[in-house]
Amino acid sequence: MKKNINVVGAIIIKEGKVFCCQRGLEKSLPGKWEFPGGKIESRETKEQALVREIKEELLISVQLEEKEFASVSFDYDFGRVNLSTFICHLESGEPQLTEHLQSKWVSFDKLNQLDWAPADIPIVEKLMEVGVDE
Ligand SMILES: Nc1nc2c([nH]c(=O)n2[C@H]2C[C@H](O)[C@@H](COP(=O)(O)OP(=O)(O)OP(=O)(O)O)O2)c(=O)[nH]1
């Protein structure tokens, strides 16, 4: 059985664009684009994990929408990633990268131009299809 890796990702939206991050080259899935976030620690809720990860990775506070946007499971060779995503709004400040190679604000119609981590593709497709009200 594959190891389950429970992960949360933030879909941060501002002025009709989504904040997308590129993974470091020394990481698993090197150079792939993803939603910032990370693994849920024991005794944390998904929401707590996401707020913590975004503070650590981007040095900002975000407000999460209550309902999950989408979740997917994807089998990588290193394990099964169960990824849950939430729409987030910036409370203040601009994201600052502490881990990622680069980041971009991308409009919904151009999201599929990035080379996403495979698990993210259905989520990106849903975002492009339904968009998000701000
Ligand atoms: N944060 C995030 N992780 C994602 C996404 N899509 C996706 O497959 N993942 C994978 C990559 C990692 O295997 C895992 C997230 O864990 P992490 O962010 O703590 O991973 P990491 O690279 O720091 O650690 P590691 O995988 O090198 O052990 O989920 C996504 O959109 N956001």
From TrEMBL:
Residues 3-129 form the Nudix hydrolase domain. One of its GO terms (biological process) is DNA repair. Its cofactor is Mg(2+). SUPFAM superfamilies: Nudix (SSF55811). InterPro entries: MutT-like, Nudix_hydrolase, NUDIX_hydrolase-like_dom_sf, NUDIX_hydrolase_dom. GO terms for molecular function: 8-oxo-7,8-dihydrodeoxyguanosine triphosphate pyrophosphatase activity; 8-oxo-7,8-dihydroguanosine triphosphate pyrophosphatase activity; 8-oxo-dGDP phosphatase activity; 8-oxo-GDP phosphatase activity; metal ion binding. Pfam families: NUDIX. CDD domains: NUDIX_MutT_NudA_like (cd03425). The keyword Transcription regulation does not apply. Its EC number is 3.6.1.55. Keywords: DNA damage, DNA repair, DNA replication, Hydrolase, Magnesium, Metal-binding, Mutator protein. It catalyses: 8-oxo-dGTP + H2O = 8-oxo-dGMP + diphosphate + H(+). Belongs to the Nudix hydrolase family. This is 8-oxo-dGTP diphosphatase. It comes from Vagococcus teuberi.
